[in-house]
Amino acid sequence: MLAWIAWSYNAGTGCWHEQGSNSMRAHETAPGTCRPRGLISRPRLAAVGLVLLLLLAPACSRNEVETTVDPADLVSAAADRLDQVKTFHFLLTHESGGTPILQTMLLTQAEGDVARPGQMKAQLDVEAVGAALQLQFIGIGDEAWLSNPFNPAEWQPLPDIAADDVLNVEVLPEVLRKIREPRLIGQETLDGVVTYHIQGKLDSGDLAAVVPSGAEPGLEVTVDLWIGKDDSLVRRVVVSGALTFSEATTMKRTLELSGFDQPITITPPQ
What total of structural domains would you count in the chain? Predict the structure, then answer.
């Protein structure tokens, strides 16, 4: 039977003494002396260690679950899943600067909808001839139209320009499949959706399919992805680094995706 143990403090000696159902046990300190307070007996040290191991065991188990996730498989599944999506909404922003489009404009923000195959309508925020402008863009197959910035009801066809010559978000699955050295950063919640945060590398030239006028090969960029844990849908893509040799290496572009497979109708302007 375990003896009941208590501790008492002797104000005279400034020491703590162990007491129990027996007045004195073989390992106890003799009366009038005290065990140094900074030392812990080996049995008690072992017990403390056991308790710590028991407390840490669940945390270790959680980490083991995370390490079983293969980042490359997550990215591959995300590319395949995005290939199956017929429509989606997108928002492209720049932390600073912009992306060249149509040779004479600098795109600072784009928001719109994509319908496969080859259809896009979007509002383009651009800088051109020293002015900040908002343009409406419609692309259907090999035809494209741009609104007059001073009269949005007036549209102009863009000769020899297709939708994917301006901004081609539709090819994002192809870009995902080129990501190198993917690694799992952790889990994060975006707009109520639990996601895997993956980070990897790309050559800047791999993004030329998305921004045909704004990417040159030969530069390494970092890519961060947020992929839905339950549905493998890409919610966010952040590209950090220069896409051309004239850009600042601090450039950062963010692409947000939403509204997957929602009804979208894109028609030529009237």
Answer: 2
